[in-house]
Amino acid sequence: MSAQLSQKHPTGLYILFFAEMWERFSYYGMRAILLLFLIDKVSGGMAMSAGEGAAIYGIYTASVYLLTLPGGWLADNILGQKKAIWYGGIVIMIGHIILAIPGGAVLFFLGLTTVAVGTGLLKPNISSIVGELYPEGGARRDAAFSIFYMGINLGSFFGIAIVGYLGERVSWHMGFGAAAIGMLLGLIVFRIGAARHLKGLGEVPPAKIATPESTAQSGKNSVLGYGLIAALVIFLIVLQYTGTIDMTTAQGLAQGAGVIIVAISASYFLFILIAGGLTRVEQYRVLVLIILFLAISLFWAGYEQAGTSLQIFAERHTDRMVGGWDVPSSWFQNFQPAFVLIFAPILASLWIYLSSRNMNPSIPVKFAAGLILLGLSFFVMVAASKIAVTGQLTSPLFLTFTYLLNTIGELCVSPVGLSSYTKLAPKRYVSQLMGIWFVGASLGNLIAGLFAGGFDEGNVMQMPALFNQVAIISTAFGLLILVFWKPIKGWMGGIS
Ligand code: GLN
């Protein structure tokens, strides 16, 4: 592990580490069996088609990240981060308890919605308290985020292993129950630890003092906001009535959600570019943020197929027998957190080593590398699916190698992107733009769900062409960024 990661950190970091570890245990654990449960027709699942199931999965995971916007707002303006994390955790646990009750569709969707609302409240705020522990910023803060990222992936690893096994091999609801227990453990750690080690952090924000200018500005913003909502509602109604999107089906609902997410992000970027009172340098930096937003959305759209098309591939087309034991298909999702745990310290050390020789690749180059690695990982799936269409089970090495490539890609974009957003955002828009970063994850997850619609049982022959599309789009966008890395770096106005 790098020297940076091993320096001394406040105990508060480890409280947040373990609380987030258990929260991610519940999130990724439940997510690992979600699609399988939705499409299961024989063991008490929801008996949906792969297309419907993946669309629901996409709407759920997209909502989780979209709800971080109101979650962040509530913490900033009313609750303070600490309370938001506590209540968010309780809501998540209740959601998993509801899912653990075998009670049909209504109860199931209630549980799913509850988990999404709770996660929106917890997830953005737990990361911002990590930042608050290091008001000085700098390398120690970066190191703290790397440690925190390990906590996320440790939780995710054990969540997929335990919830995945229980869900697939014992009962779906037992798996959901295990997720609830994980969240309970996170709450206990947070309750005991926060009182002692996070004193004075993430408290209720001081009342904001309104000036005549700020009141007039927020009045104008509200009018713009309501105008946007009205236009969006009308647009969706038109799409429904012209038959462009049928929002009475799961897939149509997911497409509608996509329109909403794209509209929110596009109008937000336009708003700050035009009416945000930015200097020329800041405007160029926002342009870079837009490019990174498109890149990260595309990246997650491929990467998050771990829970959709790649999960289906693991279940239906992969030889999972090891020493006479049939490995649960959800366990394949575990390659991502496992590879993060192995490679995060290696990549962090590589960046430090390259920096010491003045050779650290710039942010656009790292993003290009991430997208190209993702593209290559899907070329591996093209090869695998060409074997699968002949009716043979494929070697597990294909998925292993796919995950190896796309996880190294993740380490080039995800931690780097998070910190670049905090650095490139004009100061007064930092928290909002952090929210937009999560909207990128939301959009990506939604596309990952919609894309897997092509993986219905009857469509097996399409698989190579579908994987090929992801591979080509991602590699091409990566190459485009690579070609233009110099001007993009120039627009960053001296930030690296
Ligand atoms: N795997 C990371 C987490 O769970 C990043 C996920 C994301 O931003 N899409 O926090």
UniProtKB/TrEMBL annotation:
<dbReference type="InterPro" id="IPR050171">
    <property type="entry name" value="MFS_Transporters"/>
</dbReference>
<dbReference type="InterPro" id="IPR005279">
    <property type="entry name" value="Dipep/tripep_permease"/>
</dbReference>
<dbReference type="InterPro" id="IPR018456">
    <property type="entry name" value="PTR2_symporter_CS"/>
</dbReference>
<feature type="domain" description="Major facilitator superfamily (MFS) profile">
    <location>
        <begin position="15"/>
        <end position="489"/>
    </location>
</feature>
<keyword id="KW-0653">Protein transport</keyword>
<feature type="transmembrane region" description="Helical">
    <location>
        <begin position="223"/>
        <end position="241"/>
    </location>
</feature>
<feature type="transmembrane region" description="Helical">
    <location>
        <begin position="54"/>
        <end position="73"/>
    </location>
</feature>
<dbReference type="InterPro" id="IPR020846">
    <property type="entry name" value="MFS_dom"/>
</dbReference>
<dbReference type="Pfam" id="PF00854">
    <property type="entry name" value="PTR2"/>
</dbReference>
<feature type="transmembrane region" description="Helical">
    <location>
        <begin position="401"/>
        <end position="421"/>
    </location>
</feature>
<keyword id="KW-1133">Transmembrane helix</keyword>
<dbReference type="GO" id="GO:0005886">
    <property type="term" value="C:plasma membrane"/>
</dbReference>
<keyword id="KW-1003">Cell membrane</keyword>
<feature type="transmembrane region" description="Helical">
    <location>
        <begin position="286"/>
        <end position="303"/>
    </location>
</feature>
<comment type="similarity">
    <text>Belongs to the major facilitator superfamily. Proton-dependent oligopeptide transporter (POT/PTR) (TC 2.A.17) family.</text>
</comment>
<feature type="transmembrane region" description="Helical">
    <location>
        <begin position="433"/>
        <end position="454"/>
    </location>
</feature>
<keyword id="KW-0571">Peptide transport</keyword>
<dbReference type="InterPro" id="IPR036259">
    <property type="entry name" value="MFS_trans_sf"/>
</dbReference>
<feature type="transmembrane region" description="Helical">
    <location>
        <begin position="466"/>
        <end position="485"/>
    </location>
</feature>
<feature type="transmembrane region" description="Helical">
    <location>
        <begin position="253"/>
        <end position="274"/>
    </location>
</feature>
<keyword id="KW-0812">Transmembrane</keyword>
<feature type="transmembrane region" description="Helical">
    <location>
        <begin position="367"/>
        <end position="389"/>
    </location>
</feature>
<keyword id="KW-0472">Membrane</keyword>
<protein>
    <submittedName>
        <fullName>Peptide MFS transporter</fullName>
    </submittedName>
</protein>
<keyword id="KW-0813">Transport</keyword>
<feature type="transmembrane region" description="Helical">
    <location>
        <begin position="335"/>
        <end position="355"/>
    </location>
</feature>
<feature type="transmembrane region" description="Helical">
    <location>
        <begin position="147"/>
        <end position="166"/>
    </location>
</feature>
<dbReference type="GO" id="GO:1904680">
    <property type="term" value="F:peptide transmembrane transporter activity"/>
</dbReference>
<dbReference type="InterPro" id="IPR000109">
    <property type="entry name" value="POT_fam"/>
</dbReference>
<dbReference type="GO" id="GO:0006857">
    <property type="term" value="P:oligopeptide transport"/>
</dbReference>
<feature type="transmembrane region" description="Helical">
    <location>
        <begin position="85"/>
        <end position="118"/>
    </location>
</feature>
<feature type="transmembrane region" description="Helical">
    <location>
        <begin position="172"/>
        <end position="190"/>
    </location>
</feature>
